[in-house]
Structures
1.
Amino acid sequence: MLKGGYAGKILEINLTDGDVKKVETENYFDSDLFIGGKGLAAYILWKELKKNVDAFSEENMLVFATGPLTGTLCPGTRMCIATKSPLTGLFCDSYVGGHLGAELKFAGYDAVVVRGKSEKPVYLWICDNDIEICDAKHLWGLDTFRVEDAIREERGDRAIRVACIGPAGEKLVRFAHINTERYRQAGRGGTGAVMGSKNLKALAVRGNGSIPIYDVEEFIGLAKEAHKAVLENETAKARKRWGTARTIIFTSDQNLLPTRNFREATFEGAELLSAEVLEKKFWIKHKACHSCPINCGKLGVVRTGKYTGTVVEGIEYETLALMGANCGISNHEAVAYANMLCDMLGLDTISTGNVIAFAMECFERGILTEEDTEGLKLNFGNEDAMIKLVKKIAKREGIGNLLAEGVKRFSERLNVQSRSFAMHVKGLELPGYDVRASPGMGLAYVTADRGGCHTRAWPISYEISGKAPDGTVIQRYSVEKRALIVKMQQDENTACDTLVACWFLKGAVGKERYVKMLNAATGMKLTVKEFLEVGERIWNLVRMFNIREGLKMEEETLPDRAFKDPIPEGIAAGQKLRREQLETMLEEYYKLRGWDEKGVPSKEKLMQLGLNFVIS
Ligand code: SF4
């Protein structure tokens, strides 16, 4: 019996027949094996999603999952949203901060599982015991800001938490996101497009309950310690002051910053996009997620010029990198405006920046002409063209219809040559780190379970410090110990994603303290070793899900540009990855994981992890 931490119920909604069920969480899954968040979502999708279902078919599922620490005093816990991705065809888990996860727990639910497809636009109203599937005809077509306002207004409650899609999700743009509290998004992998395919415009949540805690005194003591540790941690302090924006100077200096579609790795305009400039000219307020002392969200306003009145939270590093440097744009006000449009229309800024940069390179090479672009001169640095393209993508208008398919599918519609600089892994557009100056990041991208992603492992800090976790010296551009580092980080991050703990606080809180808080909240008796094993278990379960969906080892590679075009200038000038380097890292990685030479988990490994039910 669950003793605390969990709200106790999981909501199952079938949009096809309107059936609503409340299931006891303890009867739903084995919390000792999967804890919650990503673990819960991976277990449900493995068990219930049929093989090879189209991501837009009504058989696909959307899982909104919290963890046992979500909504408690633990600093910075969030919400996991998982589905089969329309971009990659693989498992996709995307995370969103703010207060949505906590509110769902206060309403009494650990997760919401959405199946089927409504005939007409609807939104879900979840308020304690009151669950309704409501008509959303009046909301269809509205941007995310207006949807949130409209639902709060019609229900007369400003405290309602809304997760919704914009026009991009309705139009099934493959990288459409789910938006909440205006400026927080489950950005990656197209969860918003899946929501659109179900005619589900929004989830609106209000909760008046509380979360049971197994050992209240112990838990409060640990939570206080965790908050203190976060406030004293130097990295967290920097995050509090600068958000993520400060990364851009670091990546530009280190030849890691994607510039002009990853052609270059340092940007002459980086200073203009820096945190110092944003602080001076743009930010007005710090904002935080539930129970977080860091307030890393920076609300900014453009006060002069043609983008006056733009209000947006950020600009986050990934947006500065992909919609700024990667499109050759150094005007932070233009990037802020494009960022706000993406938030309102419902587009992931990483994928949007990538697909526009790719189109710009195609235009400069003559693969796309003004005839194709309806007169847009898509040169790098053309901010007006970038902004027009954002709108066209969201509406699937003209060339925007092709870009809305994502870099992989778009490049497949063009000539073969363009595929060599289509910057994605397994269909997911790459985030803000150039692998030519970080071999470990290359391995992290190709082995990431949702495609090219920086949140599963980030070995860059080890490469730059020159020291592996075991203390041995490593060279910046070598491949030694990368398999070990990437596996270790993936397992640890996956374990933390079962708690849906914020990535930025993991170092400061530390896994030991997370485990103690988990035990005090739930009455579990997990050790740190067992907690990390949960991470490994889920990593292997998702691997099996992806293999069931047809993932092949040949897809575990990088775009040709990573191997063919050396970095033109900067401290890593001349660097590129060699194919044999990637092969060496992969071979070592598969071995460390207990997978065969094709990357398939062995029976022994699956049994050792308690995953007997996935063995066919
Ligand atoms: S560090 Fe930032 S993203 Fe993380 S929980 Fe705190 S405010 Fe939210």
Note: The domain at 237-429 is CATH 1.10.569.10 (Aldehyde Ferredoxin Oxidoreductase Protein, subunit A; domain 2).
2.
Amino acid sequence: MALVPSYIQDLANYIPGKPIEEVQRELGLDHVDKLASNENSLGPSPKSIQAMAKSLSGLHRYPDVSGYQLRTKLANRFDVKIENVILGAGSEGIMSTIIRTFLFSDDELVSAANSFIGFRVLANASGRRVHWVPMKNYRYNLEGMANKINDYTKIIYIANPDNPMGTYIPRKEFDEFYAHVPKRVLIILDEAYYEFAQAKKDYPDSMTYRYDNVITLRTFSKAYGLAGLRIGYGFAHDELIRNLNKVKEPFSPSLIALTAGSAAMDDEDFLQQTLNVNTEGYTYYKEQLTQLGIQWIPSVANFITTVWDSDDQAQMVTQSLLKKGVIVRHLKAFGWPNCIRISIGLEKENERCIKALRSILNIQGSYE
Ligand SMILES: Cc1ncc(COP(=O)(O)O)c(C=O)c1O
């Protein structure tokens, strides 16, 4: 008898961006910049660091199962009830709970092919049929996704903005799509990069209009600089949250994560600084990449994806950058073999990345 079902056997291992220490050790480099995982190069919010330090002496106790304090704070901030808020070990933790909670054996899922890899793994690991609809012009093809909805469809997943493309679905387009979705179908709206995207006037911030079948997911991992802690949150109708809370691991997120998330919400200066650094960095990359003749995809998140002629070329550029101490993400595993995603970092990091790209292109001319 097989050890695992075939849909688990067929899963590929998740390969994360290389850690800085590993690259330093392997390549003997003094300095390495990691621009590979869309983290916040400013570090965690200082207020969260202080709050975490204070909470250390309470670590012998389990955290509050209900996450009451943070859920209340989120409910107040976004003008919903505490019954509409869920917490998890990152937004991915909540995605996992959603998949374990709502799927009957025949249920199917619909999403975009080659979008957020974390959801792809969870959906494929569920063993359910998933309709992966190819993107169009590096954007979600909502019309194509609507055409895949059938009597078995239970969950639709949309990352808005998308990772790894950084593109977003404007409000009008989402509204048109929503009109085609039966109310029994749950839509996960993953807004991991919401803080970066919300300045766009036509960005459909799902908290400004709450639909009963939409689950909004957000995270402290990106704009708040707490990726290593694993804390995210979500909003949905009371009944959805009630059921999710039955299935979720009771003591997740951890005590430290709850404390840090709550403090980060009070750190408006840090959030503003993060957004400023990102806007400046994005403007810099747009100008510099254009000057270097490198194709890039307009992004509303904290990264910018570049397009190369081939898988080989993208691979070569990624490896050459690595040797120069810049870790970026070749998107082959995501399904975009000719693309490289660069997370927007601090001014100096961005400059070092562009300098390295310039030198790779000059030295190698035809990139060979
Ligand atoms: C679109 C998207 N959703 C979710 C996540 C995961 O966020 P978290 O750290 O909250 O699990 C990421 C992280 O890269 C992401 O890009």
Note: The pocket of pyridoxal-5'-phosphate is lined by residues 38, 90-92, 116, 118, 159, 163, 190, 192, 219, 221, 227, 232 (CB under 6 Å).
3.
Amino acid sequence: MLMRSATSAVVLTVAVLGGSLAARHAQEPAPGTTITGVRIVDGTGAPPRTGNVRFEHDRIVAVGDAGPREGDALVEGRGLVLAPGFIDIHNHSTNGLAEEPAAATQVSQGITTIVVGADGSSPWPIAGYLAERRAKPAALDALVMVGHATVRRRVMGDDYKRPARDDEIARMAALVDQGMTEGAIGLSSGLEYEVGSYSETKELVALAKAAARHGGFYMSHIRDEADRAFDAFREAIAIGEQARIPVQISHIKLGTVGVWHKSRDVVKMIEDAHARGVDVTADCYPYDAWHSTITVLVPNKQYDDPASVRKALDDVGGAANVMIDRDETHPDYEYRTLEAIARDKGVTPVDLFIQIVKDGGASVVGKSMVEDDIRTFYTQPWVMVASDGGIGLRHPRSAGTFPRVLAKFVREQHWLTLQEAVRKMTGAPAARLKLADRGTIAVGKRADLVLFDPETITDRSTFQDPFVLAEGVKRVFHAGVSVWPR
Ligand SMILES: [Zn+2]
């Protein structure tokens, strides 16, 4: 009896609320927003055209001449560009989103969708991660990959420093299958990293086949980005070919002196793969340097062996290409290159390196690419913009990638047209991710929109100050909700 009256009270409340909402709808037009007189760069690569874009709730309902409806919120778009929300296909905000759902460093660039779980390392289980995101919605959407190293560790435990046996590969494939069933969109690998580096190609093919059965793609930080990069590109393509899966090469680069200026050969290799019917694309961040600990320069870990250290410095083009960023033992070294410090002290850069490591190490910024190669990659239609950064990751790409491309490669250097740069940030990644509801501005698409000033948009983040927000992004809408500025 008591329960029954409680139930009817609930029904009554709903009925009253529903009634008042219906009454409001009858008096007012549907709530909408119209952005007026804006240059629309729609994400397809089509030239900009001027018009209005109107959305209701989370959907775009009109594009072109249609004026605002009565009661619409109006956004003045004159002098500005409206693009689809940017999609970052390689982002490391995996854990940062829980702590900072407003994601200021990301949305201030115009990013409204990110892909996490790159480089072979993903959250697990996938369903749990996605449930957490749903329970605590962020200012952008996060899609997730299954990490190869993640499933490898689950199957092999600490005994991973060897090729996997067939039964282990089968168990890993079952986990990939599980992750895809739970909502992952593909398989990622990080074959230069500790756990992934011990895998053989056949292991990756087997796992990629499991992802392919669900319509997923294979995304790889390839096995070598330095002197053996060409073998690594070849392997990534072979995995795509054998597993019949689309391939995304993460942060495509030629990272050492031995392969610098060979980007045209990489392009040829990938175009040959396209001609054979292999679906290979890539992404590239707009920076020529990495940020890490000084010891990563020496892959064989012989930090006190002069020959190994000399080879390491030669590989990045010399001690002038390594800048100390943070050194607690020697704060006077900070923001200076190894070459400059060594010259002042009258020692060789090799001896200086060995001493710094002995004294506790330092974080450094190292040259990883030459501009010629970055330009060759960026101007390929199959190369997208991605950050490889994310909330809290100490590299200027974390807060600057997308505005930097629009400032440097479009406005200043004219490598790309505005519409082509935007396509690399929107339509192209949406196609790779099979996101039919976003990536372009058209009626029926989700209202993920970024309004920016093409004359002033720029990155402000630096290696010294990596989290300074970019400038020039005026408004960002995520599923029709204004998320920037806050
Ligand atoms: Zn990576």
Note: DSSP finds 16 helices and 20 strands in the chain.
